[in-house]
Amino acid sequence: MLSTNRIKKSLKNAALSALRKSGVHRVVSRLNRRDSKLLILCYHVIALRDEHEWLGGLYISLERFRQRLEILRACHANVMTLDEGLACLKTDSLPPRSVVITFDDGFYDFYRHAMPTLQAFGYASTLYVSTYYSQFRLPIFNLIINYLLWKSRNSEMDFPLIELGKCMPTRNERERAQVVQAIVHWADSRKMTTLDKNHFASELATRFHLDYDELVRSRILQIMSPDEIAAATKAGVQVELHTHRHRTPRDRDLFNREICDNRARILEYTGRNPVHFCYPSGDYALEFLPWLRDLNVKSATTCELGLAKRQSDPLLLPRVLDATDIDDVDFESWLLGIRT
């Protein structure tokens, strides 16, 4: 049976689709003062392989991404840099259908797919980069483990290597996440290095009869290199803060270290001092706000759903996460202000 949420979503999309076909969609958009709100779009990965089939709630195919940009162009969206968008938001001078495009994490697929596609449309973008893995040509450990579990197509797994002592189900996204959490905890308890973790991932791939070396060569789930980050900056991409190790400690000294290490790497790679921030995984706490101000951070984006308004706290800016699971009607409704 369909869940209540899925039924509600289907009914909502049917209503939005009917409005769109009737033309009322565009009329309503002119009446609700979307001009005073900023749509900040959030993306994570443009699939290099089949990542959008693995985690459709976060990832999107290149074809689907191009379709989104076509919608922006067809609706006469004003795609702005983050600096421009925030300045206009503050002075209540946003042009109609203002949009800022942001990418989280700094995966290689941004450099390979997203950046040239955005350039072809003439659209600006902001890239929030976590810099620790930029030093390695290896996939991020927890993500590649999750991907390998999905690729195995197994419904359950026993893990003698990590001495769990029991089989664990891997039938869906939630169950795989629990297995990944157990593996990461085991690896951390053994104080495994990044290279040790990569060796474990390689052994797991071999167990699943998957070619790990080919996955590494494809650059799937890898962070851009320093040279690629520098090249993106030269191409006009605004590279900003996302912590060094993709985490937000509640200890102030550790939190400050994350921002300072991240900022130092970005400054080294790009020659510019980043002053905008994105909370990794949308994880934030109110005590972070004065810490960020003391670190001269001007804005911070969350994963809270919504449009940014003039009265929005600049360190708690909402965004709209776009991914495979979002259909075109829903996307256009956010763009035109039908949804707020």
How many β-strands, per DSSP? 12
The stretches of 5 or more residues where confidence is low (pLDDT under 50) are 1-9
Question: Per the principal axes of the C-alpha atoms, what is the gross shape?
Answer: globular
**Nearest-angstrom radius of gyration?**
21 Å
Helix percent band: 40-55%
Distance between the termini: 30 Å
CATH class of the largest domain: Alpha Beta
Number of domains: 3
Task: Kindly report the CATH topology of the largest domain.
Answer: TIM Barrel
CATH architecture type of the largest domain: Alpha-Beta Barrel
The number of helical segments is: 14
Query: Proportion of β residues?
Result: 5-15%
The helix/strand order is: HHEEHEHEHEHEHEEHHHHEHEHEEH
Structural class: alpha/beta
Specify the biggest β-sheet. 8 strands, parallel
Integer average pLDDT = 90
Q: Going by CATH, what is the homologous superfamily of the largest domain? A: Glycoside hydrolase/deacetylase
**Quaternary structure type:** single chain
List keywords for this structure.
single chain; 340 residues; 14% strand; 3 domains; alpha/beta; TIM Barrel; 14 helices; disordered N terminus; eight-stranded parallel β-sheet; two-stranded parallel sheet
Outline the structure in words.
It is a single chain. This protein is 47% helix and 14% strand. By secondary structure, the chain is α/β, with parallel strands linked by helices. It has three domains: 1-29; 32-135 and 221-336, TIM Barrel (Alpha-Beta Barrel); 141-218. Strands 1, 4, 5, 6, 9, 10, 11 and 12 form an eight-stranded parallel sheet that branches. A two-stranded parallel ribbon has the order 2-3. It is globular. The two termini are 30 Å apart. Residues 1-9 have low confidence and may be disordered.
